[in-house]
Amino acid sequence: MSEVSSNYRVKSLKLFVILIALSLMLSCASHSPAPVLDRSKTIANRPKTHVVIPGDTLFSIAWRYGLKYEILAKHNRISPPYVIRPAQVIRLDIAGVKVSAAGKQQAAKRAVGVSSLSKDSDKKPGLTTKNTNNRQENKTVKKANTTNKTQTWAAPQWRWPAAGPLLSSFQGSNALNKGIDLGGKLGEPVLAAASGQVVYSGNGLRGYGKLLIVKHNEIFLSAYAHNDRLLVKEGDFVKVGQRIADMGSSGTDRVKLHFEIRRDGTPVDPLKFLPRR
To answer: What's the CATH number for 166-272?
Structure first.
C-alpha cells in the first residue's frame, strides 16, 4: 500500500506542476495580447503592383500603401499633374527610391506658385557682361530657391476639423488606427484643417467610407473619412476652416470623423500638430 501511495503522490505532484505551468502561460497571454497591426502596407507584405481602377488617383494609391506620392510618381515615370488611367499598372516595389534634389526644387516651385526665372537670367551672358554680374545673379537665384524651399516645407497652421470629442487616439504609423477619431452627430460640419487642394474625393479606399484627401504642400496631406456627404471635388482649393463635408458613418459602425495627417507619406499623430482645446 505504501508503494501505491507513493506512486500516487508522485503523479499528483507532476499533475500539480503541469497545472501551475499552464496557469502561468495563460496569465501571461492574457496580460500581453498580440498587437493588431495593419501590415498590408509594409514593404514585406506590399504587392509589387497595383492595377488602376475607376476612381483611383495617384494620391489615393500612395495613401493606400503608405507611400509618398512624389516617389511613387518618379518610380513609375508619371509627370505632373499625375494623370493615371484604368487598367494602368502602377509599380509599388520602390524601396530605396529617392526624389532628386532637382525634383524637390521643382516641386517646391509648384507648391508656392513661384514663376520661372526671368528671361534675362535664362539668357547666356553676352561678351560685354562681366563675371561679377554673373556671380551676383547666381547668388540671387540661390537665395530665392532657398526661400521657396523653406516656405514649402513649413508645416501648415492646423485647426481642428470637427468640434466633437476625441474618441480614439493615434496608435502609430504601423498600427490599425493611423489617425484620430472625433465624435459628432450625423450631418455636423467637417472642416478643412488647413488650406490646400483636394486631391481625392470618393469612396474607393476600403475602410475609409466617403473620403477626402487634401494636399497642403509637398510634405503634408490630411484625410477626412466616414463622411455622409462630400461638399468638394478633386481639384478644388479649400481654405482652413471651410466646410468640406458632412459627418457620417460610411465605412464604419457609428457617426464619427476619422482624421489623419501624413508627412512624406507616413502617418503622424495629429494631436502633435493640432492646437490645444
So the answer is: 2.70.70.10
261 φ/ψ angles, rounded to the nearest 5 degrees: -125, 135
- Report the distance separating Cα 67 and Cα 52, nearest Å: 16
**Per-domain boundaries in the chain:** 166-272
Please say whether the beta carbons of 223 and 63 come within 8 A.
Answer: yes
- For residue 86, what are the CA distances in angstroms to 46, 50, 54, 66, 208? 20, 11, 6, 21, 21
Tell the residue number behind the cell numbers 500581453, with chain if given: 32
Nearest-angstrom CA–CA distance, 44 and 63: 17
- List CB contacts of 95: < 8 A, sequence separation 6 or more: 43
| All cell numbers assigned to 12 | 499528483
In angstroms, rounded to a whole number, what is the distance separating the alpha carbons of residues 90 and 101?
24
Task: State the cell numbers at 215.
Answer: 494636399
Q: Are 248 and 268 in contact (CB under 8 A)?
A: no
Confidence (pLDDT) at 17: 62
**Run means of pLDDT, 10 residues per run, the chain, 277 residues:** 58 65 50 35 73 92 90 94 94 67 44 31 32 42 41 78 96 83 98 97 93 96 98 97 98 96 94 94
Ordered DSSP codes for 158-169: ---S-SSPEEE-
